[in-house]
Design a protein that fits this description.
Distance between the termini: 25 Å
Order of helices and strands: HHHHH
Number of domains: 1
Structural class: mainly alpha
Oligomer: single chain
Strand content: under 5%
Shape: elongated
Length: about 130
């Protein structure tokens, strides 16, 4: 179990850092280049959610204390963030069809989805950090 725990934790952290980091950058740049990051972001989001579920199973199953409640809020925010980002897929397909030229700015919907997801992932990170000390 120790190896499984270490591998799950490393994959969770790496995928989460990539997902949150690219989301924060895309939120700051108004979604510029979001079409290029969509698949890697959704892959990282999937990996973060799956490994987070595995970590919950290994470390928190059966528990319902303060730490688990804080982590549950963070997990819910992460799931909502993934859904918000996925909802902009159609707008991103249109952006890719145009070729992603510098003259074509991402739609307001893409920029807004990245900003909302960034706020939700910020809450997720705070919850993970706070849960350690709950």
């Amino acid at each position: 179990m120790q190896v499984t725990l270490i591998v799950a934790l490393v994959l969770h952290i790496l995928s989460g850092v990539f997902w949150a980091g690219t989301t924060f950058v895309l939120a700051r740049t108004g979604g510029s280049q979001a079409d290029r990051f969509f698949r890697p972001q959704m892959g990282a989001a999937t990996m973060a959610v799956v490994t987070g579920g595995l970590l919950w199973y290994l470390l928190h199953r059966g528990g319902s204390g303060t730490q688990e409640h804080i982590l549950a809020v963070g997990a819910l925010c992460a799931l909502i963030a993934a859904g918000v980002q996925a909802s902009s897929a159609q707008a991103l397909r249109k952006l890719s069809a145009v070729g992603g030229s510098d003259e074509f700015r991402p739609s307001h919907r893409v920029a807004t989805s990245q900003r909302i997801a960034a706020a939700l992932l910020g809450i997720t990170v705070v919850c993970m950090a706070a849960a350690r000390y709950a």
